[in-house]
């Protein structure tokens, strides 16, 4: 290993890298010019509802577990140990609940956009609010998705950072706009296989460089990177069993339960049974992806120990560690560095393309079609133009990510917790609480977003820049025996714990989704109760006034006219209408 100096691709690396990108583009173009040629919105947005569960499950996994997991998770494990691995516990409830509650309901309603449910349950204003919030969420997140592979290419080969951003956006936008959802799903399948292959190759070579399995295990054990179960209930600790296993459930629900990019895949399956089965099959896929990413972090520590390339100033950010490690370990294996970088680049394409397709769908279905009538051909063309437009917008958001003082992994999960949490709360309010009304839903969503950005931005501003800590607060320093693999939470001095607003700002980013969704439900129920009480009081007062009037035909006619003016034409109150859906 030669840890010093700039790493460069060989010609073979460039060829393999280019071939994989061309293959991804070819899959997209194939579906653009075969079958129905993406000539209808049904084919472009939902693949004619003909997808099988296996490709859907791989696509569901790749959408939000691609470059973020490959770049962020190994760096997290290298720095802080395997505590993050316990996030796999939240996958169980995080996938069972969507499979048995959200998917059957959405599928049986024959929705095109998941936000159509909000209009059926509440009103059109709630639907528009949900759609706009989702667009805002995904545009910001796509900045992370585009910036991650560009950062990798820049760190490894010296390729211009913003040139790589533009290349990523261009390739992804073209095959998404031309091939539709069918192209997106099948490129996800191909890119997932490449991703797993690249990670496995790096792990095998890294273990060999570390001296074998036994030597690698001794190094990571003695280095304190095998973390036990941290049962500390303090919500300000970044990673504990509770923040990952419980807080992560809310994050998973916002991703796999009510996110348009995922629901769109469920609705593209042939039957409801296959949609549910695809959700089940995501569980082993996510566990394999998490295992490979965590093992890469352990192998990195076995090779480098406490001599971090970041501390040696060979790299400038811990998010560059994975690619630096790959080039350092595989420099004597021509082609493998190109394979891994291409796998990272392709995995990011899967995330970005899913967002482009879902953004174009909700904009067309929720914001344009209800107000403008158009032919099927024109609607399909406009959907493709929307995908192109979102490609340009999301490329611009990469610059915002460049300015953030946070890791890629934490930035991505924080964004989904800040904005995805209120959306999850809005759907839970409608599904689980029949007493909630439209006024409560809009007010609750607004309160959830205010809470999200108050805590998120406040925490960001109060967080002082810090380097990678070799020994974290919440990981075990040594593991002497199998019986000592549980860390019992110690009594923390109250004076050392953040208090007041600082305590709120110090909340672990894994709790963002739970906090914000709970805020939406709580405020929504309170406002719904208040408005329902006021409405009932008005109805009671009106009934009492009517009963005091002398009964005659002319006054009866006036009373009926007033009642018809007060209530909708179908003589059903808004609360009864909303609750009945």
TrEMBL record:
UniProt record similarity statement: Belongs to the sodium:solute symporter (SSF) (TC 2.A.21) family.
Keyword Transport: yes
Localization (cell): Apical cell membrane
GO molecular function ontology, one term from the record: vitamin transmembrane transporter activity
PANTHER family, alphabetized: SODIUM-COUPLED MONOCARBOXYLATE TRANSPORTER, SODIUM-DEPENDENT MULTIVITAMIN TRANSPORTER
Lineage of the species this protein comes from: Eukaryota, Metazoa, Chordata, Craniata, Vertebrata
Gene it is expressed from: slc5a6b
Known partners and oligomeric status: Interacts with PDZD11.
Major localisation: membrane
Residues passing through the membrane, by range: 12-33, 53-72, 84-107, 128-147, 159-181, 193-211, 240-258, 279-302, 339-360, 381-402, 408-432, 439-461, 509-536
Name of the protein: Sodium-dependent multivitamin transporter
GO CC term (a single one): apical plasma membrane
Catalytic activity: iodide(out) + 2 Na(+)(out) = iodide(in) + 2 Na(+)(in); (R)-pantothenate(out) + 2 Na(+)(out) = (R)-pantothenate(in) + 2 Na(+)(in); (R)-lipoate(out) + 2 Na(+)(out) = (R)-lipoate(in) + 2 Na(+)(in); biotin(out) + 2 Na(+)(out) = biotin(in) + 2 Na(+)(in)
Organism: Sinocyclocheilus anshuiensis
GO BP annotations listed: inorganic ion transmembrane transport; pantothenate transmembrane transport; sodium ion transport
């Amino acid at each position: 290993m030669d840890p010093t100096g700039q790493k460069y691709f060989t010609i073979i690396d460039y060829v393999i890298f280019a071939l994989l990108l061309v293959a991804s583009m070819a899959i997209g173009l194939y579906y653009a010019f075969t079958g129905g040629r993406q000539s209808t919105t049904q084919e472009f947005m939902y693949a004619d509802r003909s997808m099988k569960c296996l490709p859907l499950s791989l696509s569901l996994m790749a959408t939000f577990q691609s470059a973020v997991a490959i770049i962020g998770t190994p760096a997290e494990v290298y720095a802080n140990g395997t505590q993050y691995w316990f996030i796999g516990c939240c996958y169980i409830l995080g996938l069972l609940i969507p499979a048995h509650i959200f998917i059957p309901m959405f599928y049986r309603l024959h929705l095109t956009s998941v936000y159509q449910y909000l209009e059926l349950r509440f009103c059109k204003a709630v639907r528009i609010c949900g759609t706009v919030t989702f667009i805002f969420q995904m545009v910001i997140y796509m900045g992370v998705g585009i910036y991650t592979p560009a950062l990798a290419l820049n760190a490894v080969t010296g390729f211009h950072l913003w040139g790589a951003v533009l290349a990523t956006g261009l390739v992804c936008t073209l095959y998404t706009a031309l091939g539709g959802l069918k192209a997106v799903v099948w490129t996800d399948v191909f890119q997932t296989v490449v991703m797993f292959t690249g990670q496995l190759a790096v792990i095998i070579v890294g273990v060999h460089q570390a001296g074998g399995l036994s030597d690698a295990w001794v190094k990571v054990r003695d280095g304190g990177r095998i973390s036990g179960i941290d049962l500390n209930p303090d919500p300000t600790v970044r990673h504990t069993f509770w923040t990952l296993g419980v807080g992560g459930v809310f994050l998973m629900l916002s991703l796999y339960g009510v996110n348009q990019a995922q629901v769109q895949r469920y609705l593209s399956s042939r039957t409801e049974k296959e949609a549910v089965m695809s959700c089940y099959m995501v569980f082993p896929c996510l566990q394999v992806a998490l295992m490979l990413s965590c093992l890469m972090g352990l192998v990195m520590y076995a090779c480098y120990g406490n001599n971090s390339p970041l501390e040696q100033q060979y790299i400038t950010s811990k998010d560059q560690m994975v690619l630096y490690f790959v080039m350092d370990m595989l420099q004597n294996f021509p082609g493998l560095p190109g394979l891994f970088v291409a796998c990272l680049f392709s995995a990011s394409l899967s995330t970005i393309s899913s967002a482009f397709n879902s953004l174009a769908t909700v904009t067309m279905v929720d914001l344009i079609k209800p107000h403008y009538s158009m032919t099927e051909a024109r609607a399909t063309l406009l959907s493709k133009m929307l995908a192109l437009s979102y490609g340009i917008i999301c490329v611009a958001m990469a610059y915002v990510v460049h300015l953030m003082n946070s890791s890629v992994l934490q930035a991505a999960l924080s964004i989904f917790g800040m904005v995805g949490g209120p959306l999850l709360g809005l759907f839970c309010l409608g599904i689980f609480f029949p007493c909630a009304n439209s006024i409560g839903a809009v007010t609750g969503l607004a309160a959830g977003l205010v809470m999200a950005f108050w805590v998120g931005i406040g925490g960001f501003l109060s967080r002082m820049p810090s380097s990678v800590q070799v020994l974290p607060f919440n990981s075990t320093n040594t593991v002497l025996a199998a019986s000592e693999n549980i860390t019992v939470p110690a009594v923390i001095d109250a004076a050392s714990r953040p208090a007041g607003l600082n305590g709120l700002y110090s909340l672990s980013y894994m709790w963002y989704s739970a906090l914000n969704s709970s805020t939406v439900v709580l405020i929504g129920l309170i406002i719904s109760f208040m408005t329902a009480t006021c409405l009932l009081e008005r109805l009671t007062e009106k009934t009492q006034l009517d009963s005091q009037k002398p009964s005659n035909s002319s006054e009866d006619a006036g009373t009926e006219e007033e009642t018809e003016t007060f209530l909708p034409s179908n003589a059903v109150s808004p609360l009864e209408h909303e609750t009945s859906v």
